Amino acid sequence: MCDGPGAIDVRLVTAREYRPLFGSPPSDLEGLLNACLVFLLQISLRTRLDRLDGTGDMAWSGPEAIGATVDGVLASLAEKPFPDVLPLPFAELFGRFLSRCPAGLLEGLCADVVARSFAPGSAERDLARAGLSEHVRLLAGVFGRGGSPATYGVPDLPGHKMGN
Length: 164
Hints:
By secondary structure, this protein is mainly alpha-helical. It has one domain. The protein has five helices and two strands. The chain has helices at 29-48, 64-79, 90-99, 103-117, 123-144; strands at residues 49-51, 58-60. Strands 1-2 form a two-stranded antiparallel sheet. A hairpin with a 6-residue loop joins strand 1 and strand 2 (58-60). Helix 2 packs antiparallel against helix 3 (90-99).
């Protein structure tokens, strides 16, 4: 951090051990929305993991990381080209899809991401598991801030009907 007029605060966030989440790309809108959700959940958990003083013990960062992560993912999706046949820009569809995700489903998906992403007994897994309920509650709050759920052809998650 620099002090003085015109100084800019910069924070570098890295996602360790990034690798493809899926063997092949989704073939339909529902699959694409679900894949983006899993990616967002994984990156939101990874951005909460930090090291004290950059190289020290693992730590679980504060809740401010969640809104910034969601906003960043939605902003990056807004820059990507998607087929013109969608009823809305994809970033908006995804935002509306997120607003329809029940907290219980998010908790199950996040728990699955933790189980698949971090080695048993690792500090990362222990921290993510300990902070999971709070993380899901905060995610649900961020997801829901977009207002009422969409009725623009955004599909329900498989096996889960989400009301408007």
